[in-house]
Amino acid sequence: MYSGAGNGAGRGGGDGILATMSEDLDGLAPTERFSSRVEHYAKYRPDYPPELLDLLKREVGFNQASVIADVGSGTGILTELLLKHGNEVFAIEPNREMREAAEKQLMHYSAFHSFEGSAEATHLLKSWVDGITCAQAFHWFDQAAAKREFYRILKPGGFIALIWNARATDATPFMADYERIVTTYGSDFARSNQELVPFERLRELFPGLTQHVLPNHQDLDWEGLRGRLLSASYMPLAGQEGHDEMLVELRQAFDLSEKGGKVRLEYETRIYLARRS
Fold first, then answer.
1. Which CATH number do you get for residue 134?
2. Residue 98 resides in a domain
């Protein structure tokens, strides 16, 4: 099942345009971006809607017996949803701090396997898994190299599910305020809007790709909202330029929109599905 120790994210050949851009914009390699934000990420990033599993069952034949490689698994948010469903999951994550956070949270699941590896070099055996999930991560990869690795480890007919929780930026006045804060105080990466890979690009990589959208949301108190903002790799941390001013504006936006001490962050969970022919 596993053919050696991983050594972080590959930066090999191919047309990994977005991964290269993300490093150039902020001066951080993709595998380093979240090391200082693990606690915020694990506690305050949104879950994925349970309807996601029904969609996978309907569209690609996913079931409890499906063996899954969750690539770029981070702190294990999607991994845990799959484990609760009863799946055996190989969580592949190059960032040590994020991987260790997932292990602490999920090691009580006997079907959980945590490995250091990358999308370009998972170190799983050929034709090993029934499906690959990749949540909130594909934009960090060398995409052509990741495609080759995905096809190598997938069984014939296996599926690929690329998933993003995308903020519904104009859904409510509060969402518009939140987006304004992100674009005002975020780094060049935030302003470049490169977190979502365009559908046309994904379809070039994976012929026959289909697109699906599910509604999702988070209801957050002040500490939750603050943690959610700081979980993003492109927002300034304490001691960095703009951090204090950013939190003042965030608090003002919270106070304007809160109901019962909470605000709602609205998302569209975007799912892109393909099969290995």
1. 3.40.50.150
2. yes
Asked if the structure places residue 185 within a domain, the reply is no
Whether 197 and 139 have beta carbons less than 8 Å apart is answered as yes
- Say what the pTM is: 0.86
Average pLDDT, the chain: 87
Top pLDDT among 276 and 52 is at: 52
Q: How many independent structural domains does the chain possess?
A: 1
Query: Within a domain: residue 245?
Result: no
Q: Domain range spanning residue 100? A: 17-166+195-217+268-275
- Angle made by CA atoms 134, 138, 98, in degrees to the nearest 5: 70
Q: What's residue 35's pLDDT?
A: 55
Contacts 24+ apart (CB under 8 A), 59-65: 59/210, 59/212, 59/273, 60/131, 60/159, 60/161, 60/273, 60/275, 61/159, 62/130, 62/131, 62/159, 65/130
Average pLDDT over residues 28-38: 58
- Hey, what amino acid is at 140? W
Q: Rounded to an integer, what distance in angstroms lies between the CA atom of residue 96 and that of residue 73?
A: 11
Residue 144 pLDDT more than 60? yes
Largest CA distance in the chain: 54
Q: Which of 24-28, 66-70, 181-185 has the lowest mean pLDDT?
A: 24-28
Q: Spell out the residues 6+ positions from residue 110 whose beta carbon is closer than 8 angstroms to its own.
A: none
Residue 48 lies inside a defined structural domain of this protein: yes
